[in-house]
Amino acid sequence: MPGRNALFIPGPTNMPHALRTAMDVPLEDQRAPDFPAFTLGLFRDIKQVFKTDTGQIFIFPGSGTGGWEAAITNTLSPGDKVLASVFGQFSHLWVDLCQRHGLEVEAVDVPWGEGVPVETYAERLAADKAHEIKAVLVCHNETATGVTSDVAAVRRALDALNHPALLMVDGVSSIASIDFRMEEWGVDLAVSGSQKGFMLPTGLAIVGASQKALEANKSAKCPRCFFDFGDMMRTNVDGFFPYTPATTLLRGLRASVDRLLAEGLDNVFARHHRIAAGVRKAVEAWGLELCAREPRWHSDTVSAICVPDGFDGNDVAKLAYLRYNLSLGLGLSKVAGKVFRIGHLGDLDDLMALQALAGAEMAMRDLGIPVELGSGVAAAQEHYRATARPVDLNAGIAAAM
Ligand SMILES: Cc1ncc(COP(=O)(O)O)c(C=O)c1O
Predict the structure, then answer these.
(1) Residues 180-215: pLDDT tens digits?
(2) Looking at 45-97, which runs of residues are DSSP E strands?
(3) Sheet holding 56-62, edge to edge
(4) Cα 27 to the chain's mean position, in Å?
């Protein structure tokens, strides 16, 4: 097919050329004496992306789901109580994973479109005088509904009660794209994967663990082997791994971290916010609503857009793919058919976002959804123009000459 697939699912995301070429290397000897010179620097620098000084980063072959499993099994024991909330497919799946590991999960049901219920968490924690709750789970960015939650507020709730539970955060679709501060927010376990903000293929589960989490690891009884922090720590300290690492992906991760730090994390977050705001302007111009019920929950990495009654959001994604070679996210589980999603994270600029908006608009119109062609694109264009960085044309010409 001529042209190329426009990839606007919320992960995997678009891979920059520089990352692709960074991985176009011969396979290498993971026990070579100079391998640690590479890995130790990577372990050090990726901490900047998680914003932790005292924490430790583990890089497992795997995906975000493996990261969840690593966080849970390394710090908890079967029967331990965990406080969680379910407001989308990914917060649901993490709870399911906990239950399958024999944890006792107190899962607060929240309407899909809202985020972590901080007040309910505070009440449950206050009632837990015996400190039976060993961990509190937060899905920072619920990718199914496009909802971002307030991790810092959960930390404040824990601190206000002097509650010792571990704070575990799913940052799979937030870390490296939107503001995330492991150290400052007192996050004990931070879970991410390679295929979203890191702009790489799927294949790495990247987990940050605080010193408190590492302490908990010493007495945690959940069975684990592949994801064992202890095995990792014993070998990582010298720059090696307990089993064959995904060396090619590690080379890509090096390039990804370099790229993120060169752009500057604050600039990365601002770029995501600006692009997301343009998408939200388009949704408004279409006369449609986001699944995220309030602006405080608007995600800067993914928008779940409600289609009017009588239409199927999954048809929008299907038609966009088949007719226009545009990949949009499907509605998952409870919101299947009710929404379609635009992933706007990773390596993205204004014109790329406009491409997704144009295609979504066309697909909606083709299905009879009453949106005016060009309306969303125009609204986003206005936003991108109004917020574009200033350009000095004369300076540009002078520099070129
Ligand atoms: C918020 C969130 N958590 C966890 C996962 C699971 O990650 P993976 O599919 O990489 O296992 C995803 C996947 O999209 C996600 O969006």
Answers:
(1) 999 999 999 999 999 999 999 999 999 999 999 999
(2) 56-62, 81-86
(3) 56-62, 203-209, 189-193, 166-170, 133-139, 81-86, 104-109
(4) 29
Mutation pick for ligand 1 pocket among 143, 145, 149, 249 (CB with most ligand atoms within 8 Å): 143
Q: Decide: 8 and 196 in contact? Cβ < 8 Å.
A: no
Around Cβ 176, how many Cβ atoms within 10 Å?
A: 28
Q: Ligand 1 mean position to 343 CA, how many Å?
A: 13
pLDDT digits (tens, 9 = 90+) for 316-356: 999 999 999 999 999 999 999 999 999 999 999 999 999 99
**Contact criterion met (CB below 8 Å) for 143 and 130:** no
Probe residue for ligand 1, chosen from 68, 91, 173 as the CB with the greatest number of ligand atoms within 8 Å: 173
Task: Give whole-number Cα distances, 26 to 146, 147, 217, in Å.
Answer: 39, 40, 36
What is the token pair recorded at 85? 């909330």
For residue 336, how many other CB atoms are within 10 A of its CB? 14
Distance CA 252, CA 23 (A): 5
| Whole-structure pTM value | 0.97
| Structure tokens, 223 | 């069975």
83 closest CA partner among 33, 132, 143: 132
What residue spans of 83-176 are helical by DSSP H?
Answer: 89-100, 118-127, 151-160
Reading the block at residue 393, the tokens are 């044309």
